[in-house]
Sequence to fold (358 residues):
Amino acid sequence: MNSRVEISSILILFSLLVTILFAASMAWFAINVQTTEIAQSSVYLLATKDYSSFLEDDHFMPTSRGNVMKIADYNGQIQNDILKKLLPVSGAFLLLFLCLSLCLWKALNHIHNKRIMETAATLIQCENDTAAPSDPAVMSVYRILQRRFETLLDDNKRLYAYLSHEQKNTIAVLRTSLELSGHIEYLDAMDDLSNGIDDILTLSETASTAAAVPIDAALICAEVYDKYKKVYEQLSFDFDGDEDTEIMAKSRWIYRAVSNLLDNAIKYGCGNPIAFSVGVAKGSVIVKVQDHGIGIEEAQLEKIFQDRYRINELNKDGYGIGLSLVSYVCDLCGGFILAESEPGQGTTFYLSFPQKAD
Fold:
């Protein structure tokens, strides 16, 4: 049951119970109210004038028998007078109690909503043990959710790895068969499929669980250059072989990140030269890809690394999941990505990776 409904039901039941008890008490009082017992069977009701005369001369003579009343009638009249005075007070009390109950319900509801929002905010901000919630109940729920999420994440990673490995093996067999049979027109499609599987594997990994190893970024970039130079003559590559370009990463990460940048550069470079280089600056390995194509509006530069974002004016693939993958690779390696562009003048991407510590 919804917690708000539970709170409302409890308050309504509580109000009804108090009202019933109060009404029962009033009924009991009306029946059992005690009046003064007098030995005589009747009493004489003094008028104000008779009472004043009695006080003055200590002598009283009844002026009329009309003021004589039986004891039972006298007690009944007193009870009626008491009830007439109690009923308005009782009604006011019940009305006040109803108002207070509504105020209490609103206050409890507000506290309940505030507590839920605080709990949700705490769970969202809990990314490590140092930021874990202090409330024992919330902490227990957080731990359970954390374990379930980690288990699910591990299961998904194993599934992705298994499926991707099997798919890549199948693709490799099919590619070889196509080459031997002379159907080379399908090889590009097979390569695209293999690259897509590598992208899925990369996006499914995290910096805390992936086993990064020392790799030479310049050698990986040279391998990518050799592949793309065969299909785009206007591509140039520059690096200094004497510089230390080792970083902590995976070859697949860097290969796919640089390949995505070159894909976009060729696609939107308008056939102009593309400069591709690797260098070292201030303890970082810098990979630079510069084209001289259509460029990107400044307002869109901050959005191009979002997942599946595409520039509206370009009704083509690219500048979408590829760039979000490049950004994710930089995050995996503890680096970052920058982009500079001007419409009609081209775009330059910089990938910065920390050098491997000696």
Remarks:
- The first strand starts at residue 42 and ends at 44.
- The chain has a mean pLDDT of 76.
- Residues 3-125 form one domain.
- The two ends are 60 Å apart (CA to CA).
